[in-house]
Specification:
It is a single chain. By secondary structure, the protein is α/β, with parallel strands linked by helices. Helices cover 30% and strands 26% of the residues. Strand 22, helix 12 (373-385) and strand 23 form a beta-alpha-beta unit. The relative contact order is 0.16. The structure holds uridine-diphosphate-N-acetylglucosamine (UD1).
């Protein structure tokens, strides 16, 4: 297992290109199952989660060709010959559940293993199943698998979620495109990835209104056709790298960055004393002065502060002036990075879904362990600001969601190396 060694060495300067969004790509890829014509995605990120989705689609009979060094995914679901998403693939990645809605909508049958994924709480899929039931599907849970059927095809209906779920909204939206009649999704997620999915589905011939609001209306069509679609910028990768100059000084331009993808996060950075300005090619970030002010953060569905940036924000707060309170409202058990940051000298008290961080003047390098995707990168950010060497082990989590993290940070002057097999 590889590890990453980071040595704190002061201000960073330069540019970091931001990739296409992992989470958008993971929902756009299963959209290929909705049509027998090709779907091509450009601006795809090169990540192990994308390879897992490629394997999953392949196991169902879809063809996925990775072109231009992985930046283009040319997909075709002309010959689907299997309707079972096997545990061996699904357990690696929770987003695998996103094949359920499209398969069911197209062929009236799907068997999908219950997913695994990051160890950040229980993360059930009940909302996905209820949404598809509202479209007339029959669900049966047996031997760890969801057996779904819609013999006469799905029928439009009202889906009212009890709370916001990104994945369940995506599954419902994809399924509804081919359901007979009108579907209304209430309390829909408003994340940019949902908007991106709706735009792609519309290019494929779907009739959708209201994406980006909490009510999405879909008029089912008989069939969808082929399309080409660029994956939206990864707002979480963007926010993560915006924190690098915030945490250790300097000025970094994030190429492709857009403020509207991440406004609540930018507002918090501003409050903390970090300036974010729009440039011709993206966003530029620097501290206003040497000090970072402690700010309180509560994670919320979009347009609120994203849970996927909570760990990274905590790394910034570790050396801020004062006390900050971070409240995690989306997932239980999402503070696994806290004890690792404490190994580096951070002062953090976790009580349930709340973490109180008391800023210290300096963190100290230490051996630490990556526990999940976003936690891993928070340790790298902390390492950039720490005195001495930080060794982050179990970095395979990082490969799921950050392409070329070492190269990107080296490019702005960080001292960072990947050590194979340690
Ligand atoms: C997606 C993102 C993930 C992000 C999360 C919240 C992808 C591939 N992953 O995950 O990076 O952290 O949105 O922004 O896009 N829940 C249920 N029942 C369900 C579904 C969800 O109880 O059927 C709960 C979850 O446990 C969680 C909350 O709802 O507490 C929100 O989860 P959800 O928005 O569904 O997250 P994902 O789509 O899994």
């Amino acid at each position: 297992m590889d590890s990453i060694i980071v040595t704190g060495n002061g201000p960073l300067k330069g540019q970091i290109p931001i990739a296409g969004a992992k989470n958008a790509c993971l929902t756009l890829m299963p959209a290929t199952l909705l049509s027998d014509e090709p779907l091509t995605l450009t601006n795809a990120p090169r990540l192990s989660d994308i390879r897992t989705m490629t394997a999953l689609l392949g196991s169902l009979g879809a063809e996925v060709s990775s072109l231009q060094d992985g930046k283009v995914l040319a997909m075709s679901s002309h010959d689907l010959n299997n309707h079972t998403a096997d545990y061996d693939i699904v357990r690696k990645m929770r987003a695998s559940i996103l094949v359920l809605g499209p398969m069911l909508a197209r062929d009236g049958q799907a068997i999908v293993s219950l997913p695994g994924g990051c160890a950040i709480g229980a993360r059930p899929v009940d909302l996905h199943l209820r949404a598809l039931e509202a479209l007339g599907a029959q669900m049966d849970l047996r031997d760890g698998y969801v057996h779904a059927k819609a013999p006469g095809g799905l029928k439009g209906g009202i889906i009212e979620f009890p709370f916001v779920s990104v994945g369940a909204t995506e599954n419902a939206l994809m399924a509804a495109t081919l359901a007979k009649g009108t579907t209304v999704i209430k309390r829909a997620a408003r994340e940019p990835e949902i908007v991106d999915l709706a735009q792609c589905l519309r290019k494929m011939g779907a009739q959708i209104e209201g994406e980006g609001t909490d009510t999405i209306t879909i008029q089912g069509v008989d069939r969808l056709h082929g399309a080409t679609h660029p994956v939206v910028t990864d707002r979480i990768e963007l926010g993560t790298y915006m924190l690098a100059p915030a945490i250790c000084g300097g000025e970094v331009e994030l190429l492709g960055g857009r403020r509207d993808l991440i406004a609540a996060f930018c507002d918090k950075l501003d409050e903390a004393g970090v300036e974010v300005s729009e440039t011709e090619n993206g966003l530029s970030v620097r501290r206003r002065d040497d000090h970072i002010k402690a700010v309180d953060v509560t994670t919320e569905p979009f347009p609120g502060f994203p849970t996927d940036l909570q760990a990274q924000m905590m790394a910034l707060m570790c050396t801020a002036d004062g006390v900050s309170v971070l409240e995690e409202k989306i997932f239980e058990n999402r503070f696994m990075h806290a004890p690792e940051l404490m190994r580096m000298g951070a002062q953090i008290d976790v009580h349930g879904g709340t973490a109180k961080v008391t800023g210290v003047s300096k963190l100290k390098g230490a051996p630490v362990m990556a526990t999940d995707l976003r936690a891993s990168v928070s340790l790298i950010l902390a390492g950039l600001a720490a005195e001495g060497e930080t060794k982050v082990s179990r970095v395979y989590h990082l490969d799921r969601g950050y392409e070329h993290v070492v190269g990107k940070l080296k490019g702005v002057g960080a001292l960072i190396e990947r050590i194979p097999g340690q």
